[in-house]
Amino acid sequence: MTEHDDFPSEFDHKWANAAEHKEPSARARMLAARWKDNPPGPVPFRGDPDPVAPRRSSWISTAVVLGCVAAVILLIGYAQTRALY
After folding, report:
1. Half-sphere exposure of residue 38, counting CA atoms within 13 Å on the CB side?
2. What does the CA dihedral 45, 46, 48, 53 come to, rounded to 10 degrees?
3. Does a structural domain hold residue 4?
4. CA–CA separation, 2 vs 7, rounded Å?
5. Is 73 within a domain?
6. Whose CA, among 8, 46, 69, 85, lies 20 to 30 Å from 30?
7. pLDDT over 70, % of the chain
8. pLDDT grade, residue 9 (50/70/90)?
9. How many folded domains does the chain comprise?
10. Per-residue 3-state assignment (H helix, E strand, C coil) for 6-43
C-alpha cells in the first residue's frame, strides 16, 4: 500500500494538456490511412436533402380528428341514454 501512496491518485490534466506531442485517435489514424490513397471529394457544409414528396393538406387530418371526436361524443351520449332506461 505504501508504494501507491507516492503517486497522485488523480489524473493531472495540466500535465497531459502541456504535452508537446498528442497522439491522434484511432479513428483519425484510420481515416488518414484511408484518405492517403483515395481522398474524399468536396462536400457542402449542409447539403440539400433528397426532395420530399409534398404532404397532404392539413385540413384532411383535421377533419379526421374532428370526426373521431364527434363519433366518441355521440357514442358516449348514446350509452348514457341507454343506461337511463
Report:
1. 3
2. 170
3. no
4. 10
5. yes
6. 46
7. 84
8. low
9. 1
10. CCCCCCCHHHHHCCCCCCCCHHHHHHHHHHHHCCCCCC
| All cell numbers assigned to 28 | 483519425
Give the pLDDT confidence of 37-63 residue by residue, as tens digits: 999 888 777 766 777 777 767 788 899
76 assigned to some structural domain:
yes
Residue, of 84 and 14, whose pLDDT is higher? 14
Residues near 32 by Cβ (< 8 Å), separated by ≥ 6? 24
**Cell reading at 62:** 383535421
Q: Is residue 68 part of a domain?
A: yes
CB 24 within 8 A of CB 32: yes
**C-alpha cell read off for 30:** 484510420
- CA 61 centroid distance within chain: 27
